[in-house]
Amino acid sequence: RTPAQPSVRWDEFNQLGTEMIVTKAGRRMFPTFQVKIFGMDPMADYMLLMDFVPVDDKRYRYAFHSSSWLVAGKADPATPGRVHYHPDSPAKGAQWMKQIVSFDKLKLTNNLLDDNGHIILNSMHRYQPRFHVVYVDPRKDSEKYAEENFKTFVFEETRFTAVTAYQNHRVRQQRINSAPFIAVRRSRPASPPRSSLR
Amino acid sequence: RTPAQPSVRWDEFNQLGTEMIVTKAGRRMFPTFQVKIFGMDPMADYMLLMDFVPVDDKRYRYAFHSSSWLVAGKADPATPGRVHYHPDSPAKGAQWMKQIVSFDKLKLTNNLLDDNGHIILNSMHRYQPRFHVVYVDPRKDSEKYAEENFKTFVFEETRFTAVTAYQNHRVRQQRINSAPFIAVRRSRPASPPRSSLR
DNA sequence: CCCTTTTCACCTAGGTGGTAAGAT
DNA sequence: ATCTTACCACCTAGGTGAAAAGGG
């Protein structure tokens, strides 16, 4: 049976055109990708993982005046295709099914040389998250069954554009509304003059 | 092969007579109990857990003037004997052996009605932490082998007296020295008079 | 008197977006 | 112009000991 993606929040963002921040140090996703899982063998071991595939081979830019995304040319060279294993992997089916599985430790970066195992994406490109379940086959010749022990699920509403700063004002606002604790700082105290005296 | 308890810090405290704070809400141990493990089957599953047994059947009190612990009578009725499973359990031997295993999530409480699964201890009593390794036997009739699949380790230097507030001044000082970040607040702002007006 | 509980200021650890400066 | 980066104030979440109050 297909796992479910609790998706109210994703739908809200998807309507606006979800944007995910990527930074050099790595940024968590918001919304977080989470799934409710059904139909596993409670006693068997499974690995859960995610990866991200380009939606198309285009680069985008955001037109502020029209508040819309425009194609800005062909995609930049693909980034290293990394995967993120859910840190509880491997675990028994019973464990995974007990509650919603949340990928809140996953981080996105635009640093091609990232050394922290984060997912590397190109800013201004569109991505589709994918969710994979791997059954840990106890049989000796388990490689032979790799195909059948591997299942992939795609939730289209989780597509997004990677950005280094929110582009669409309404997405930023939605983000702030979704997490009331986020401070909206209005201004920064005047910084000292940079260096009139070297 | 016997696991090792990194023990420099434990020895320091043990010389003074280690005291562990217990609170109603639960308090972490300091020092933390941690072990380096050797000799597991890398591919097999193991559970790691701890429990605490009374060192004797006595109750103690601390004599400030002589800075020493005195026997204050027979032990209070024993507390429910709980165990604490390391939250990563079950996991493969390879995983456990990869690095030092730290029981830093374990909490001690004096609340007999505790509902958070914390370890319940009697204040002013002495305890010996114990560390257990359970091999998860894949055989059908695994109960029959319970004995051989279960190993217990005791590190005597980790004995302590449970207290609700540090008794020995030098233990308190040692604690503060061990964690430089701990604030030593000198005084509290005068509190408003309690209720001259009910 | 001896011990426990409550409260609270203060700390760590880590994530967040705005701003301004930097880069291309 | 357009996008990226560094910096930083501000937040959450949770642990900590001291002091003060409470209890037997």
Automatic annotation (TrEMBL), chains A, B:
Residues 10-187 form the T-box domain. It is found in: Nucleus. It comes from the Eukaryota. The chain holds residues 58 to 255 of 412 of the full protein. This is T-box transcription factor 1.
